[in-house]
Amino acid sequence: MTGDMTSDMTVDMTGDMTGDMITAPTPGRQRRTYAPRVPAAQRRTQLLDAALRLVVTRGHNAVTMDAVAEQVGVTKPVIYGQFASRGELLAALLRREQEAALLQLRAVLPDSAGQRLAEAPGELLAQVLAEFLEAVRDAPDRWRCIVMPMPDMPIQFHTAREQARTMVLARAETIAHLVLDSLGGPAGLDPEIVAHSLVALFEMAARLVLTDPAHFNPDRFATAIRAAIGLTRPV
To answer: Residue 169 and residue 183: Cα distance in Å, rounded?
Structure first.
């Protein structure tokens, strides 16, 4: 056992340490309340959720074993029962959020939508944007880490964010080619520039939905993009 771990603690049969100290009651002193015992997998999720909340509210540097323990209401040995170190905890958080974000993106960026883009590009793009923004609202902490500036972001998190952005840009350029073809290829509209503009629009919309959800909602953006595409369609 390390110096961080207290020897007087109870351990349940699932391997999840509760951290309840065995101490004699002290008159006039209120005993600390700890989180109830839960299965190990559920505890792992709680710890990662707490780490994500700390990243969003206080920055990556604020994610320490002590801070996560306080957030969840457990002792540090509970965390060490799941993660050997702070680095392992952050790596697990990165993997979880990256995988979940990519699943959300792939769900709203279908691989085959050529016919729908040709027939109604404005409607399809509006639907994709609205669905993306609903995904952002469903997991706001995740998307704050992706679209909001984070000065103390570790290089691994920055690399993962850029990898996801590269994937989205590639898909956006494919969509841009299809949209421009359906519009008769207006002169001067470069598919690569259009793709970067679309990604920037999605990121800006996500930031506004996260920071001012009462004023900016997915429907407003969907309506605006329908109107914008309509302006470029041949009469």
So the answer is: 21
